[in-house]
Specification:
globular, mainly alpha
Length: about 170
Amino acid sequence: MTPVLLDEIDSYRVYFDTMYVGGIPHLLNEDGAYLAFLAIVSATDALSGLFAPNKPTGERFRLFVERYFPEDHRPYAERLWNLRNAVVHSFNPGPDFVLTFHTSRQHLKSPLSLITLNAEDLFAALLFAARSYFDSLLNDSQLQENFQKRIAATDGGAPEAFVMQQYPRVQR
């Protein structure tokens, strides 16, 4: 692996860790739980784009879950894709899941035919998947090629730094 590629991976990871690994824990409360789920599926989406940029979005998302998430989450790959779509586009968890937080004992249980997803446990699964993916990326030339392709893509690849400035209101 070239030093340039190693720098690109490290740079991407800094953004990923800052926004998702550092940001999601702040949402694990009553006010932010829904946004935590949104951020978790968004992070999964971002990683799946690096993993398989040539595949359609849904397929790469499902493949990423099946390959990198903890084994007990893998059978839910299709349902997690449906959750991603419902959470992003419809502001609800869709037909398969009940979303909760601070109730780890209920995670992946289905007492009422709906599967319970606990935010902290799903976040832990994301962390597991991210670490597994980035470890694989360091040693797999095909993953490295996919990574480079994705970060070069104009439709969303490498993070770009930008500055937002808010001007104070003029007092009258």
